[in-house]
Predict the structure.
Amino acid sequence: MPALAELEHPVLAWENGAPQSSAFDDVYFSRQNGRAETGHVFIDANRLPERFAAWREPRPFVIGETGFGTGLNMLCAWACFIHHAPPDVRLHLISTEKYPLERHALARALSIWPDLAAEAETLCRQWPEAVSGVHRLQLGDRVILDLHFGDTAERLALLDGRVDAWFLDGFAPAQNPAMWQPALFAAMAARSRPGATFATFTCAGVVKRGLKAAGFHWEKVPGFGRKREMLAGHIDTPPVDNRRQAAPWFMPPAARPAHSAVVIGAGIAGASVAAALARRGVHVTVVEKTAPAAGGSGNRQGALYVKLAADTNHQSRFYLAGLMYSRRWLGTLDPEYRLWQPGGVLQLALNDREAARQRRFSDHHPLPRQLVSRQAQPRLSEEAGMNVAAQQGLFYPGAGWVRPAALCHRLLDHAGITLTYGEACRVERHEDGWQVGLSDGSVLEADQVVVASAHLANRFAPTRALPLQPVRGQISEIPLPAGVSGPSRVVCAGGYAPPALDGVLTVGASFVPNDAGTELRADDHRHNLGELKRMLPELYQQLEAAGADLRPEHASGRAAVRAASPDKTPYAGPVPNADAWADDYAALRKDATRTFTTPGRHHDGLWISAAHGSRGLSSAPLCAEVIASRICDEPLPVEGPLADHLHPGRRLIRALKQG
C-alpha cells in the first residue's frame, strides 16, 4: 500500500469564479456552463435519470469517478438521484483524487451554484484532511460518498466494491498522461458490475485503446459545447478479480437478504453497528443483558484517541482511518457537541524511549498538522492549560473525548431498532436464517446476526475458535475542589485525564489482562492516581493543597471488562467456519507458503465486531460501517488489504501456519 502521508494541494488560478490547475494548465469545469456540461457528459450519457427512477435493488446504485476535483459531478449526481429515485433506494458515490483541494477553495469553487448550496455545505463540513486512504462521508440518510485520496489507478486497485456507472473524468490526457494509463482502465473493468456504463468528455486515442483492451465497448456520441464528440459505453462481462489469489480464505461470503438483524450487545460496538444497519433500512433487534453501555462503554468519559506505530503498518492505517471517520461521524450525529468534544489530545513522552518512538513516528509520517504534530515545551503545557511532566509529546488537534454511555443511548434511539433485554446463550443457523436463543427460553429470528458482546463474543459455538482476552479496566473519579480545574485537553501517557465534566475529573484506566472482575479495587485507584501524578504533577499538588481526598481506599470510580485480540486489532467481518478452514487449509501446518484456490467457508449471515480494547471510540464506528457495507453489498469504507486485516479468520490462518 502507498505511504501514509499528506497529499499535495493543487496550486490554483481563478477566472470568473472558476478554478484552474496551474500544474496541469487545465480547468476543473467549463467556464461557460460547468453544471450543464456535467449533466450532458456524465449524468445523461450514463442514463442516470431513467436508471435512478427504475432502481429497485436492495443494494445502493454505485457511481465511480476518476478525479473528484471540485465535487461538481458528484453533487449533480446526488441532486439527480434525489429528484428521480424512489424514496426507499440508496446511492453510493466513489471518487478518487490525488490532489485534494483545500476546504476554503472547495467552498469557493462550489459557491457559483446557489441551488447546490445545501449539498456543498454538507460536503465542505465533512471535508477530510488530505491524507492518502479512504474517507467515508455520510451525505444524507440515503447517500454515502467515499473519497479515495491518492493515485487513481492505485486507489481503484485497492477498492473493495463494484460500480454501476463510471464518470471517467480528470484533466485531459494531453495535460495529465500519467493518469490515462492501461492500469486505470484495467482497474475500472475489474471493479465494474456486469453491464456497468461509463462516459467521458474525451475521444483521445489512448482512451479508446485503453477502454477496448480492458473489455469496455465504446461509441462516439455528441459532445458538449464546442466539443463535437465524446465517448460513452459499457462493459458486459468484467474480468475476474484475482486480488485474493494469495489469500482466498478472505473471500467474503456472497451477499444474502438483509431485511432483519439481531445484534448481541449494546455497547459502542453493538450500538454503532445497529445504527449503521438501521440507517440502511434493516430492522434491527439489539439484545442486551442488563442495560445499554453496561460494560466498558459505560464510563462517564472516554478518550477519542489512537496510538500509532512508529513505522506504518496495517493496524496504524486502520486506527488513523478510524479516528478520522469517528470525528466526521460524531460531527454529523451531534453537531452541538453534547455527546463529545473535539478539544484535542496530547500524548506525552514521559521517558526517553517514548520520546524516541515519537520522533521516529513524526519522521516517518509527514501528516497534516491539523491531524497530528510533535510539540515541545513550553507549547506542550500551553496546549494542556497547565504544566505537564514531559518535554515532548504528540498533539492530535481534532481528537478529544466522548460521553460513551450517552452516545450508545443516542444510537439506539432509532425507529428501526428494538431493544430487547435478555442474555443470549446460543446462536444457531436455522433454515434460511439465524436463531438467537435467550436464557429465558425465548428465541429471536433474523436474516443476519452480529455478535458484539466484548470478551463474551466467543462464547457461542460458531465463534468459539476466535481468541479473545478479557482486560479489566478501572477509572477513578475525583470531585474537583473550588479553585482547581482540570486540563483543557485530554492528556494521556500510561493513563489519561480528559477535561473535567460536571466538576469531576476522570482518570484512567488501569489495564489488567485476563481479569474479568468488575469490583472497585484500591490498587487500581492507586495506579490511576499515580499516573495522574506522573502526567500532571502540578494538578496533583493543587488537589492536595485544596484538600481533595486522594486516598485510594476512598476513591470512587467504575470498573469494566474490555476485550482484546492477540494482535490488538479488532475483529470486524464474517465469522469463519473454523472446522472447514482447518480441513481446507490443513496443508499450511506443514508449508506456510502453500497456495490455495478454495474460498474461505463462513457461517453465512453471522458477523462479529469485537476486540476493540481501550480504543473502541476510534475503531467501532468504522468497523460498523465495514460490517454494514458487507451485509448490504456496498463498497467498503477501507481498502481491501485493511478489510482482510480486520477479518476474524486471520487468527485461524496464523494458528495453522504456526503448526
Summary: Residues 264 and 429 are 15 Å apart (CA to CA). The radius of gyration is 26 Å.
